[in-house]
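Need the bound structure for adenosine-5'-triphosphate, inputs here:
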Amino acid sequence: MVAPATALGVDLLLFASESNDSGAQITHHIVGDYTNLSEVLDFANKCDVVTFEHELVPLSVIKGLEAEGIKVYPPSSAFIYSQDKAAMREKLNAFPAPRSQVITDAATVGEYPVIAKAISGGYDGRGVWKVDSSQELQAILQHTPKLLIEELVDFDTEIAVMVARSPHGQATSWAPVETVQQDGICIMTVTPAQNISSTVAEKSQQMALEIAQSVGVVGVMAVEMFVKGEEIFINELAMRPHNSGHWSIEGAVTSQFEQHLRAILDLPLGSPEMNFPFAVMGNVLGGDKTDMYRPYLHLMARTPSLHFHQYKKDVRPGRKIGHVTACGDDLLHLTQEVQHARDYMSGVIDE
Ligand SMILES: Nc1ncnc2c1ncn2[C@@H]1O[C@H](COP(=O)(O)OP(=O)(O)OP(=O)(O)O)[C@@H](O)[C@H]1O
Ligand SMILES: [Mg+2]
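Answer from helper R.:
Posting the output first, comments after.
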């Protein structure tokens, strides 16, 4: 959000866990513990409005800010649905979703395979397990005593629809995005999603807008969905600028980061239209390469149209440390260039 905040003349102040957090390296910040209400309150009193870029801030802290009259977006009444998968399933029971139940005892599950999920705190597939037997389920219950059990959906395509909503209720959505996952991590996105019908595309956007209104989100939100034929299943909600919206930095008239700022400041929202027919984004995962200088030389020379984003995070295997985006009208070419750049920077290939 730092780049669009600078452009809009908005002063950002970051509450960071450590001074070498990605955002803290490039913007004004205060270091503190986001689980400690009094520390967060001291920080929030310096701000006109407070928002989040991850979902780990305890609901009690958010409610504590609200009790002091601080404007927090999204509000706790909405944020809970991105933190608690069981509450989300219950709230969205009017929308199509995988069949699900909350369990504490493996005996309540009769059929396998199923998907088991930690009710809160999971990300990048951590906290999600495909379970084939009662024994496996019992082993998971040992460390996670309460689970959301879902029908395993044999979907054709996984998509996400990003929406933005402002306090007075203006809302927009970007084109549906196909998210390609490997080992529970999103490795690539293609916008607009290719393998869905135009009816599904329209319906998915309509649903995402209805969900945004129903939960009362303020800011941007990703609605993750599965598509099987003409059927849509709601997977989960993420209430923050999301990986599935990174393409919008170059690919859309208004990026998700700018839109988030506009939404929480109750400014008119920007256009979500695409600047190009296609936008492909590839996540760069940590591998053996820690120094990107030589990979940059090679890739920038090879593909001058590629956009690079480096998060300045410590490199750990499998950790998302950056992304690359290519926009244009030749989807196959864009996909090949993004895959090559991603694999080259992650160290999967050397040429
Ligand atoms: N009911 C289901 N049926 C089939 N596959 C599923 C189901 N639920 C989840 N998955 C797969 O597991 C992945 C991770 O699940 P989910 O999005 O709920 O977890 P997360 O770890 O909270 O997410 P994120 O990676 O978005 O932080 C999904 O993207 C999807 O590929
Ligand atoms: Mg997910």
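Comments: The CA atoms of residues 291 and 345 lie 9 Å apart. The radius of gyration is 20 Å.
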